Amino acid sequence: MDIRHTIEIIEKEITITLDEYNKWFVVDKNLMNFSPQYGWRIDQILEHVTLTNHFLLILIRKGKRTAIELSSKKNLGKELENYQFNLDKLHDISKHKSFAWIRPEHMEPKGEAGLSEIQT
Question: d(Cα 60, Cα 16) in Å, to the nearest integer?
């Protein structure tokens, strides 16, 4: 698999995921406000996902800057020739409870933003 094919797969998955995610912003109010015995309401989950994405994008931007700096020191084409793209590892971490992780406090929903702000 080459870089172009890898990017296409990732773009497709992101599009599908965001389409599914956006559908949850328009569910029936009773469903949206249902409080399960354990866990978060839908609006809280949406806020958590948005917060998590926000902070992950910060890390991605930092990683991008580092990658650009490093690419100027090496022959990128040569490096990509022998690089092994392993999307299976991304699939593995997408499985529920595939690794131990306690979310940071700043990624917990606080209920201070409305749904339209969270979606934006």
Answer: 20
Q: What distance, in Å, lies between the first and last C-alpha atoms of the chain?
A: 34
What the block records as the tokens of 77 is: 């084409």
Question: Could you tell me which of 47, 54, 55, 21 has the C-alpha nearest to residue 114?
Answer: 47
Closest CA to 50 of 91, 37, 42: 42
* pLDDT digits 0-9 by tens, 64-106: 999 888 888 888 778 778 788 788 887 888 888 888 888 888 8
Q: What is the pTM of this model?
A: 0.79
Domain, as residue range, for 73: 3-119
* Each residue's pLDDT tens digit, 5-58: 888 999 999 999 999 999 999 999 999 999 999 999 999 999 999 999 999 999
Query: What is d(CA 7, CA 38) in angstroms, rounded to the nearest whole number?
Result: 37
Q: What is the Cα–Cα distance from 120 to 118, expressed in whole angstroms? A: 5
